[in-house]
């Protein structure tokens, strides 16, 4: 009888606990999960922020530290994406024009780029290197010109700044640190093929680069590390030289290990590649290029070829799906070039802040220095991110933003990661049909990012 009473007591306790859990509202569940999250040892020196609203009504579901500016990492890309739709327009496309001028002797080839970050990208059939070169070569053949004396790139209205404030030296020579020029090519990146030895500590050799680099050399200080240690190789490019050094490690026994770097001059690389291509059809083109920042006498030139980028929806899709920093920086500079005298990143960010200020969002909540989130100097609030996501839901281009978001943990959201920073920002529809907009950022955590992510998911799971 005593044992039966104990079973009844335990059963009643179980039912009471679970009945209480079932009776809790979503805000209460999130609050309890967040409180447990904050007490985790990984967060003993961290600051965290979580802001959740009802997507349909805008009513606040949960708010903790939503007005404190934090480094957002790549969740910044949603701010840039939504601002690009508003400030460039849904129908926006980049154009890259090519013109020539005949004179008493060899002609001149003039390139009129517009900052298109997709030129030569492998992500669309029409932007691939082979497609671009084939189309341009055919158009050049139709001009009848067989030799060009100079290659000019018109850069007026577009400053030389390709590295935004706060980007780290360890980042800027690697593919994710490729910055935007007015003429971009192959997403301004190249691949390095490496070969390691059989023993830990053996030197690592550079086999080749793809494509072959023009006017730029690499030196390896890499060594072999234990099998399974992965890619710990970083390219460092001193700005005063044309040679870069690769430091770090790759695993032993690798014969064709690939890492990717950022081109120091996309225009120079493009012209060299075009020159090699034209040589095969009997057209002479120098591999050198001259960049002009002052207006040229365009009336003297004849435009013979125009390349149009994919639509903004498509650019933003890849920008967020693959977190391409170059696209974000190009969009900010394009906003600057459209609305201000030049393309300085600071001008573009000023336009973005002004636009949202007119719609009730304080400029202090958007303390940005780049458009991609790579800089650790950015400080934005989760409140600002949610406000922009709420705004996007009401726009005719909303599907473009929603489709661009990756799916993590069964939720449509953009992730963000730089050292000591992890964030998630997006939309979710629960099993009962409730829709939420949220932003969740953690700064200065300790331990592994993968362990932290599982704990962040546990909090967000309360929205399911």
From TrEMBL:
Gene3D superfamilies linked: DD-peptidase/beta-lactamase superfamily (3.40.710.10)
Keywords: Carboxypeptidase, Hydrolase, Protease, Signal
Signal peptide (residue range): 1-23
A GO molecular-function annotation: serine-type carboxypeptidase activity
Listed GO biological process terms: peptidoglycan metabolic process; proteolysis
Similarity comment: Belongs to the peptidase S13 family.
Name of the protein: D-alanyl-D-alanine carboxypeptidase/D-alanyl-D-alanine-endopeptidase (Penicillin-binding protein 4)
Organism of this sequence: Pontibacter mucosus
Upper lineage: Bacteria, Pseudomonadati, Bacteroidota, Cytophagia, Cytophagales
